[in-house]
Amino acid sequence: MRRRVETRTLQIGDVTVPGRVLTAPMTGITDLPFRRLASRLGAPYVATEMVASAELARGRPDVVRRAAVGEGLPLTVIQLVGRDPVTMGEGARMAEQAGADLIDLNFGCPAKEVTGAAAGSALMRQPELAARIIDSVVRATSRPVTVKMRLGWDDHDRNAPAIAARARDLGVKAITVHGRTRCQFYTGEADWDAVAEVKAAVDVPVIVNGDVRTTDDAREALRRSGADGVMLGRGVYGRPWIAAEMQTALDGGVVEAEPDAVARHALVVEHLHAVLDFYGEGLGLRMFRKHLGWYVEQAPRPENPLDRRAAKARLCRLESVAEVDEALAVLWDLK
Q1: Is 208 helix (H, G, I), strand (E, B) or coil?
Q2: Are 35 and 70 in contact, with CB atoms under 8 Å apart?
Q3: Which listed residue (51, 109, 206, 274) is catalytic?
Q4: From CA 305, how far away is CA 86, in angstroms rounded?
Q5: pLDDT over 70 (residue 333)
Q6: Are 324 and 272 in contact (CB under 8 A)?
C-alpha cells in the first residue's frame, strides 16, 4: 500500500511519537479495536476515547473499558476530562498505572453534556481552574502531560495563547489546538492561522487540529499554523489507514491508491470481529453500526449516491454478523 521513507518524529517529553500525524481522542470511535487496527496499519498516535476522571477513579466498568490499554500497541495515550483537580490527579495516577505513555487533558470538547458540567472547552472560560487542574495532574504523574484545547470559548475571548503559555509553565509538554471556538462547534472553517499565535506563545510542540482530511489539508495547516504536527478527527471516519498514508506523504514517500474494494472489505471484517470480541455480539453490532455507515460512505462502490445511502441504511439495520458480511460483499461486488 505504501513505501516507507525516513519518518520525521515528534518529541513530547521523554516520548518519541513516530510521526507527525496524530489521531484525536473521539468518544465512540477510538476504542481499543479501532486503535489496534489503525496502529497495525501504521498510524503513529491514536488516543483513547475521552475518559471521565471521576468515573475512572470510581472504577465504573464502561469508563474503565474506554481507557482499556490492551497489549502490543506502539503508543498509549489516555485523555482525561473533568473539572475537579483532585479527581483529575487521581485519574492521571490510574492512567499511568494502566500503562499510559502520554496523558492528555481535554479542554476542547464542545458537547453540551460536557460543557454543562463545566468541563471540556468550558475550562477555556475558567483559566485559573484550568491551571489548577494542570498543576494537579502534572504533580500526580511521571508521564508527559499534554492539553487539547480550542481557540477560546467564543470570538470575543480567544485566549488559547495565554492558556497554552500557562500550561507550558506548569509542565505541559505539548499543546493541540482545534482551530475553532467552542461556540462554533464544527461550523465554518478551522482557523489554522490562529493556531500560529499559540505556536508563537510556547516552546513545546504544537499540533494543529480541525478540517484536516487530506494530505493537501495537512500541508496547508502546517504551513499556516507553523505547528509541529497535525491531528485528524472526523477525517479518519471510515478510513483507519489514512493517518499512516498521510504520514508517508508528508515524509516524501510514494503513496499508492487507497485500498481497493477487496482490501477494504477485509479491513471492515477485521474491524467488525475485533469489536465483537471486545464488546460481545449484541453490544458490538450496535457499536459498529456507525463505523459501517462511514465505511459505506467512503466505499469505492457504488458510484450512485442514492445507492450508497440505501446501502448505508440497509447495513445499519442488520442484526447478525453473517448478514453484515454478506451485505458488504454484495455492496462491493465481491460475490
Answers
A1: strand
A2: yes
A3: 109
A4: 51
A5: no
A6: yes
Q: How confident is the model at residue 254 (pLDDT cuts 50, 70, 90)?
A: confident
Please tell me the pTM assigned to this model: 0.90
Measured on CA atoms in the order 222, 227, 232, 234, is the torsion positive or negative?
Answer: negative
What span, in angstroms and rounded, lies between the C-alpha atoms of 127 and 43?
A: 33
Annotated catalytic residue 316: no
pLDDT in tens, 40-79: 999 999 999 888 877 776 766 666 666 677 777 889 999 9
For 325, list phi and psi in degrees, rounded to 5: -60, -45
Cell numbers standing for residue 134:
494542570
Question: Where do runs of H (alpha helix) occur along the chain?
Answer: 32-40, 53-58, 61-66, 85-98, 112-115, 127-140, 160-169, 192-201, 215-225, 242-250, 261-279, 281-297, 305-315, 321-331
Residue identified by cell 508527559 is: 144
